[in-house]
Write a structure and sequence with these properties.
Rossmann fold, 10 helices, binds adenosine-5'-triphosphate, binds magnesium ion
């Protein structure tokens, strides 16, 4: 099985952007094939990666609900899953993307969630790396969508509240025993050096700081122009900082 990296953190701290930067670095260094997982029901990892999404697990789930009554006895739910797994994948250069999405109707995401987990299990052996973007907050932990990962990277903005949320996410991941090999904190959107008071806060909360990513004007431009991480200049600071972070992880 490939190396699995999951990102977590509060809203808007840079999870999806960092996911994209990790994926670009892995591909450009020819480290191996990548399965990108978008576990945010409000999918947008595809935009950061510059590709269109074929279908989402949520859409396949809706399709199943509509067609199930017409399927003859021979086709069971599990077979349906297997039959549709390739339809759910979107292809990029050097990576595939699987997006969870959400169903149309009311109700909870449980089924789409379970289907997503099943697809991940089926697919993950085919890739060198699995990089998972998550929705803000902790629900992906309590649902165990994020489980059995080599690296759980919790992202925070440079604020005490961000670090507090990060420590709560770390605590919950331990409490729920999601089976994360190593858990790190990554400070993103930092202006200049990290404030010494924040560094102290990080230490006091027992978080292990993996590194920092500065506020990068190239990311700002990418966002405004609706471009992807593959469009930012090769010498962008954020790209280089993520490369160093991957080195720290021995990737
Ligand atoms: N290193 C960076 N430098 C400058 N801007 C950044 C950086 N990282 C992220 N951003 C910007 O911050 C905003 C939020 O980023 P992003 O969507 O990656 O966060 P997120 O944690 O995935 O958000 P959500 O919780 O909504 O999923 C975007 O406008 C993005 O362009
Ligand atoms: Mg996001």
């Amino acid at each position: 099985m490939g190396i699995k990296i999951a990102l977590a953190g509060k809203g808007g701290v840079g999870k999806t952007t960092t996911c994209g930067l990790i994926i670009r670095n892995i591909i450009e260094a020819n480290k191996g094939t990548v399965l990108a997982l978008d576990a945010d029901p409000n999918s947008n990892l595809n935009e950061i990666l510059g590709i269109k999404v074929n279908s989402t697990i949520g859409a396949i789930r809706e399709d199943f609900k509509k067609n199930a009554p017409r399927m003859t006895g021979g086709v069971y739910k599990d077979q349906f899953v297997e039959m549709n797994v390739h339809q759910a994948l979107s292809e990029g250069k050097g990576f595939d993307l699987l997006a969870m999405g959400r169903g149309d109707g009311p109700g909870c995401y449980c089924y789409a969630n379970n289907l997503f987990k099943k697809y991940i299990e089926m697919l993950q052996g085919n890739y060198g790396f699995i990089v998972m973007d998550n929705e803000a907050g902790m629900e992906h932990l309590s649902r165990k969508t994020t489980s059995d990962v080599d690296f759980l990277i919790i992202i925070s903005d440079p604020s005490p509240r961000g670090i507090l949320t990060a420590s709560r996410i770390r605590d919950l991941s331990v409490e729920l025993d999601i089976n994360a090999g190593e858990t790190f904190l990554l400070m993103s959107r930092v202006e200049g050096k990290l404030d010494a008071r924040l560094e102290r806060d990080i230490k006091e909360r027992g978080l292990e700081l993996l590194g920092i990513i500065n506020n990068d004007p190239d990311i700002f431009d990418m966002d405004l122009e609706g471009k992807s991480v593959f469009d930012i200049p090769g010498d962008s600071s954020s790209l280089a900082q993520v490369r160093n972070i991957l080195k720290e992880l021995k990737i």
